[in-house]
Amino acid sequence: MHHVTLDRWSRLASPLHALDARVKILAALAIVVSLVLPQRPSPWLLATYLGMLTALAALARLPMLAWFWRAAWVLPFAAGVSALNFFGGDPARGAFVLAKSYLSACCLLWLLGTTSLHALLRGLESLGAPRFLLMVAQFLYRYLFVLSEQAQHMRQARHCRAGSGRRQPLFQAATGAVAVLFARSYDRAERIHQAMLARGFQGHFVLLTPPLLGARDYAFLAAVSAALAALQLALWNL
After folding, report:
1. How far apart are CA 23 and CA 15, in angstroms?
2. The Cα angle at residue 1 between residues 110 and 141, in degrees rounded to 5
3. Which among 4, 107, 198, 230 would be 20 to 30 A from 113, CA to CA?
C-alpha cells in the first residue's frame, strides 16, 4: 500500500521531527495568527515570513520544490476572496490576501510534514481538542488507506483480465466498480473493527509512553515566539 506524500515526509529524520507535537502545533498556530493579524499590505513582512518558513522547512529536510508546489494548491480557493479586492479597486490588498493564504498553507504543510498524524492527534488531544472529533479524524485517515488498498487490488485484477471478454459501456462499468469497491471496503473495515474490539479497544487509543516536553521543545517554542514578537513590534513601529 502506497502512503501519501505527507505521511512519507513525517517519517523523515530531522531536529524538528524529534520535537514534541504540542510544541509544533503551538508554533504553527502562533505563526498563522501572527501572519493574518496585519491588515496593511507589507511586502517586507511577507518576505520575512516566507524566509522564516523556508528556514523551518529546510531545517526539517523537507523537499523544498514539492513543499512550495503543494502549498500553491490553496491558491484557487483563496482566489475568490482575493478577486473581490481586485475588482473593488484595491489590488494591493487582494495580492496581500493571496500571499497570506499561500504562507498559511506553507505553515500547515510544514506542521503536517514534520508530525505524523498519530502524534498530531495526540498533541491536539493533550491541548484540549474534543476527543470525539479526533477519533473520527483518526478512523477516517485509517480507513482511507483501506479504501485505497481495495481500489489498488481491483485495479490490478482488472489489468490482469484486460482484453478478455466483452467490454461493458464505460458508465456501467464504472458504476459496478464503485459498488464493488465500497462493498469490499466496508467488509474489510468491519473485520478490522472486530479485530480491534477483540484486542480490547474501548473507544480511545491508550498511550504506552506519555509525551514529555524537554529543553529543546521549550527552546524552540521560545525562539519562534521571540521572532514573531519582534516582527509584530517592528510592524507596530512603522
Report:
1. 13
2. 50
3. 230
